[in-house]
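Model: You mentioned two targets. I'll fold them one after the other.
Researcher: Yes, keep them separate.
Model: Target one:
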Amino acid sequence: METWGELLRRHYNYALGQRLDWLNRTRSQIDRCSLISEPIGEVPQKVDYYTQASDLKQTKELFPEYKNIYADCQQQNLVRLDKAWKQWLMSDKNGKRGGRPRFKKRGDICSFTFPRVNCAKAGAHLVRNILKLSKIGEIEVILHRPIPDGFEIKQATILKKADGWYVSFSLLDKTVPEPIPVDEIKTATGIDVGLEKFLTTADGQSVEVPQYYRKAQSVLVRQQRKLARKTKGSKNYQKQSNKVAKLHLHVARQRKEFHYQVAHWLVKSYDLIVFENLNIKGLARTRLAKSILDVAWGAFLQTMQAVAVRRGKHCLGVDPRGTSINCSGCGARVEKTLAVRVHSCSCGLTIDRDWNSAVNLLKHGSVGLPIPVCGGLDISQPVKQKVSFVNLRCSRYTACS
C-alpha cells in the first residue's frame, strides 16, 4: 500500500506538470504582435482528465510497475487532480477560487480510493470483517461500528495515519429525513462562539472551552525538542517524528469527538439553530490565532450542519456585525472592547456579553419566520445574570446539565 501511494504520487506530479506545461504554452508571452506576422508555433492539444486517463495504457507499457495498481485507483487519482485544477481556474457560486495545485513531495499522498465496493466489477469487497482488495489481497479490519442494514457501500478509501492504516467507507443512506416544515418549528436558538466560552445559546446555556491543544503543549514541547536533536532522515528521526504525529492525531480526535457531542446536543434540543458567519481565516491571522485554531469553529459549524441534515433540523448563518454591540433588550448601540465581558445598557439590562450576542443572532435569524422565538430581554430580568455551564462528558449522543 505504501508502494501504491508513492507511485500514485509520481503519476500525480507528472499529470500536473502536463497541465501546467499546456497552460504556459498556450498563453502569449508578449503583449502585442507585429503588423506583418508573428510565429506562434505548434498549439498543443488541451490536457484534461479524459486525455490523461486515455494515456494510462501507455503509462503501464513504459513503466510496468503501474500494472500492479488497480486501474480505478489510478483514475481516481486523476479525478482528484482534475478537481483541484478546476477549483483553481474556475470560481464557485460565491466567486471564490482555490489555490494553485502543488507538486506532492514524498509521503503527501497517503490514500487511494476504490470507487466501487461489493459489486461485480468492484476492486474492493467487504465480507464481515475481511476486506479483499484487488491486487493487494485480504486484510482483516476492525469495524468500529457495524454497517447499518439497508445502507449501500459506494466507495472505500484506504488511508494511512500516524498510528496505522484505515479504511473509510462512503455509504448511501436513503433514510435521511426531509427538513421539518417551518410552521412546525417549536424551539429555536442562536449560538455565539467564543474563546472564553466555546459557545453560548440564546437561553443562557454555555459550553466550556476544552483547550485540547494547550493542555497537550507541555508534552508536545518535550517530544519536539527530542525530534530536533535527531539526525534528519535517520531511523531515530522517523520514530520520533511518528511519536509527535501521534500526539497531534490524538488532539485532533479529541477535538472532533467534542464537536460531535456539542452538535448532537444542540440539534437534539432545538429545531432551528442560528449561528454567525465568521471570517475565521481572517481571525486566525491575529495574535489569538493559536486559541482560534484550537477551538476550530469552522470544523464545528460544518459538523453541526451535517448532524442537522441527518436529523431533519435547520441551521441558518447570519451576518454577525453589531450583534455584540447592540442591546438585545432595547436595540441601543453600546460600544465596548473585547476586554469587557458584561453587556450593561442604559435601559437597565445587564447580562453576559456572549448571551446578549446569542439573543441578537436569534432575532436576526428569525426575521420573517412564523416561529416562537425570544423577543429579547428586558429590565424585568435580574441585574446580574450568571451563565449556566453544560458539561459534555458523556457519550456522543447524550449530554448532562
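Model: Target two:
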Amino acid sequence: MKKQEYDKKIILYALIPGLGQFKNGQKEKGAIFLTIFGLFCLESAFFGINALQELITLGSEPGIDNSMFLMVRGTLQLLITLIFVGFYVSQIRDAIKVNKNKTIGLPIATGFTGIKGSLATHGFPYLLTFPAYILMIFTIVLPVLVTLFMAFTNYDFNHIPPAALIDWIGIQNFKDMFFLSSYRSTFMAVFSWTLIWTLIASTLQIILGVFTATVAHQDWIKGKRIFGIIFLLPWAVPAFVTIMSFSNIFNDSAGAINVQIIPLLNKLLPFVDLSAINWMTDPFWTKVALIMIQGWLGFPYIYVLVTGILQSISDDLYEAATIDGASPLQKFNNITLPAILSVAAPTFVTQYTFNFNNFSIIYLFNEGGPGDVGGGAGNTDILISWIYKLTTNTTPQYGLASAVTLLISAIVIAVSLLVFKKTNAFKMD
C-alpha cells in the first residue's frame, strides 16, 4: 500500500500555531490556535520567563525574596509551559493529518460547525475530562512537583524564607539520609520498623477478615446477621475515637488491660502467672499493641469485601468437591481462596500501601514513642510520622523530609505496580 503523502511545506507553516490550519483552509480552527499561541506569548513575556528564572535562582535578596513563593510560581509556570508544548506538538500533528486527508481528496471540516462536529465525534470524551485534568494539575501535580523540588534544596531551620534564601544543593539530602551517621541510623531503624509494621499489621487484618467472612458464610452458622453486626462495629466507630480509646485501655498503670483483664486471667488460669505489661513505655509491647489495634480496625473492611465474593461462588463447586472427597481445607485452598484473590488482590495490595503510610494510629496511640532512635524519630515512628516530626519540631528539616517523602512514594509505587503485574490485577479479558 502506497504511503499517504502530504505537502512538506505544511510543517513550516505549522511551526507557528494556527498557520498550518489556515493553510489547510480551516480558518476558524487556525484563529483559535493562533489566539492560544498569542496568549501564551503574552503570559511568558509578562510573567513566565521571569518565573522560570526565579525558579532557577530562588531569589537573590534575603528578607525581600521568598524562595518558597518563587518555587511555587516557577513550578506553576513550568507546568503551563509543558501543557503548551503538548498543545504545540498536537497542532503540528493535526496540520499534517488534515493535509494528508486533503491530499487524497477527503472532505475537510471547516467553520465552527466543523469544529463542533469534530468535538462531538472524536473529542467528546476529552472535552468531558478536560476540567478534571486541569483540576488534577493544580491540586495533585503542582504540590507533588514542589515537594520533589524541595528534596533538592537546603530548606531547613537555617534557611526559612523570607528571612533567608533557599538554595539548590542537588542530591545532598539523599546522601545525608544514607551516609550521614546520625540520619542513616535513624532512617534504617524507622524504615525497618515500617516494613515490619506494614507486613504484619496488614497481613493480620486480611487473615482476620478472610477467616471471619469464611466462617460466617458456612451453612451451619446460626445468627449470621448478629455476627455481621458485631464484625462491623470496629468499622462503624470513627478510627481516631477507637485509637484514643485503646490508648487509654493500654495505659500501663490505669488501663483496663493491666488493671482488669490480666488479673482476671490470673484467676481463671492459676497455673499461668501473668504480670502487668508496659504497653506504653516498652517499645516492643507498644509495637505489639499497635499491630493488634490495626488488626481490629482493618479486618471489617476485608470481611465485607470477602463476604460479597463468597456469595458469588457457585455451590455446585463445593458439592462437586464434597463428592470427590475433598476436605474443608482443600475446598478452601482450591475453590474459596483462588476466588477471593482473583477479585480482591488489588484491594489487599492497597491495605499494605495504606498501612505503609498509616500516620493516624502511630501518632494518636503514643505519638511514635516511647523513647527515640535519634533524628527526632521515636521507637514506633514509621516513615510518614517521622516526616511529620521532621517538619514540626523546633529544628525543622523540610528538605530532608521531602527526600524521605520521595523515597516513600517510589517504594509504594514500585511495589504496587510489581504486585499488580504479578497478580494480573487489572488484566481485562
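Researcher: Noted. Anything on target two?
Model: The first helix runs from residue 9 to 14.
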